[in-house]
Amino acid sequence: MSASLPLWLNLLSQAVIVFLLSQISLSLLWFFSKTSIHTSRSQWQAILLWSTVSLPWFISVSCFFLAGQSEHFNSNNSVIQVYFHWHHNFIFSWQSWHGFSLVISLLISLYLCRKAYITLKNYRIQDKKRRVLSLLTRNSEGHFEHSQALAFTSGLIRPKVYISTGLVQQLTAEELVMVTLHEQAHANRYDPLQKWLFLLAASFFPRLIAQQLIAAMELTMEYGADHKVSQRFDALGVAEALIKIARLMGSPSKQVEQRLHYLITPEQITSKSAPLNQILPLFQPLTILLLQITLPLVAVVFALDFLHHLFDQWLWHFN
């Protein structure tokens, strides 16, 4: 084993613990703040959800590379050396808990990435079928022939809006414009691609938390698309159209209720009025974002070395 390899393997095992500490602290924060996040504007909801699933990666990778710089191991006064150090940087054994943690982490990561890849593969197959169906049955107005009421956006790199003739025939001209604007908003923001990337990042959280995060992101994307429509049409009119379209398409009632509440909440209707109405809603999401950044760092700083000593004492170490 080369001189530097044990160092990097130890740093990887350290990064695993940093990732877990960050994930635990963010999961707890999500549990206590999810109601507040749901009441924020859609833009802030998306930011807070993305920061929840991405910060564990950012923090662990940052610690790995910062601690891996040789100069940090030459100074006893270095902050990195004080808080992010191993007592045996150049000694590593696969038969220790360090090696075991790396193997387990690798296996879990491969399993989750494989599941995400299968999801992606199936999605691309479905997207190809949709494009072929659209080309074969598309009418002069660009809608594909189908008896069911359908409207969706499909495609990762080149998202495209699909609206069936079964839905078009039951809508007024104004309602059709609303549906088109809604789906076009999904396409313009590459929501199908974002949804898959978010699913991949969230899958590393505990299953219950991951399911809640994914459902929250899907709802947030709908909020954003609905808000885009309400910028052109009256919010109450959009809400009425949403009720009708949801009934035709058989959308989940709970999600429809949440979208209606978001559309007609006073904050959304008066968001363009006094400057104070635009400033006050920022305090809550900014506070949550600050906690998302500080809590994992505090957990890492105060718990990393303690856990290292605890594992060394109670779990098997070096042979």
Description of the molecule:
By secondary structure, the chain is mainly α. Helix content is 73%, strand content 3%. The chain is built from twelve helices and two strands, in the order H-H-H-H-E-E-H-H-H-H-H-H-H-H. Strands 1-2 form a two-stranded antiparallel ribbon. It starts with a helix and ends in a 5-residue tail after the last helix. The model is unreliable at 269-274 (pLDDT under 50).
Mean pLDDT equals: 83
- SSE run: HHHHEEHHHHHHHH
How many strand segments? 2
- Widest sheet, order of strands: 1-2
Shape, per Cα inertia axes: elongated
Topology:
Layout lengths: L4 H34 L3 H27 L10 H5 L13 H41 L13 E4 L5 E4 L1 H4 L4 H16 L2 H12 L4 H24 L4 H15 L3 H12 L1 H4 L5 H40 L5
Antiparallel strand pairs: 1-2
What key phrases describe this protein's structure?
single chain; 319 residues; mainly alpha; 12 helices; 2 strands; elongated
Please outline what is shown here.
By secondary structure, the protein is mostly helical. It is built from twelve helices and two strands.
